[in-house]
Amino acid sequence: MGQIDQDKKGFSQGFDRLESTEEQEQAKSDDQREITANFKLVPVSESIRYRKRAQSAEKKAELLAEQLAQAKTQAAKLAQQLNDVQLEQRLTHKLAQAGAIDLETAVLIAKARTNSNEDLDTVVEQLKKEKQYLFADSSASITPAKKTAAPKDRLTDARAVLERAAKKAATTGNRADLQEYLRLRRNFI
Predict the structure, then answer these.
(1) How do residues 128-171 score in pLDDT, each as one tens digit?
(2) Cβ neighbours of residue 110 under 8 Å, at least 6 residues apart?
(3) Is residue 81 a contact partner of residue 105, using CB atoms and an 8 Å limit?
(4) Is residue 152 within 8 Å of residue 140, measured between CB atoms?
(5) pLDDT for 84-121, tens place per residue?
(6) Of 121, 72, 113, which is closest to residue 93 (Cα–Cα)?
(7) What is the C-alpha separation between 124 and 94, in angstroms, rounded?
């Protein structure tokens, strides 16, 4: 029986070793499952779809960045144009108050002389001193407008036109002339 007992012991030790290696392999496979659970494997077709979506999103981002840059440059241009128009309006107002005769010319000259930090009143005064011919003479008095002739009586002119059309229609006998006469006559009846 000694031999059988030794075989049993050897077998049980081998079985224990086998169990421990199986446990180690199972632990390794559990570790691998945890790793693969963290990094899910995606099918190739889905991976391609993800890549295409990412590329299209990158293209859209680039396009939007370009559009944003264009919008910013356009906004800067519009802001500059607005500043120019506002300056021109202020100059026009100041020059009109100063009595400029040729307002367009005075505005152009004043705009050319104006710096961003210079006061508009000083520019207008300097322009008034240097280019006196652009401004009305302050010593000259304003004369009122003269009376004009009275307007002509519209009905007498219209009746004369009607009479001429009637004579023309009667002498020519043309249908177009007759229609013209009737059209004019409709206004008086």
Answers:
(1) 898 888 888 765 555 666 777 666 655 567 788 889 999 999 99
(2) 91, 95, 120, 123, 124, 127
(3) no
(4) no
(5) 899 899 989 988 888 888 888 888 888 888 876 678 88
(6) 121
(7) 7
| Residue 88: closest CA among 105, 102, 108 | 108
- For 87-119, b/e burial (b = at least 16 CB within 10 A) is beeebbebbeebebeeeeebbebbeeebeeeee
What is the SS3 assignment for 189? coil
Q: Between helices 175-186 and 154-172, what is the axis angle to 10°?
A: 160
CA distances, 6 to each of 11, 13, 65, 162, 184 (Å): 8, 10, 82, 148, 143
Claim: this prediction has a pTM higher than 0.85:
no
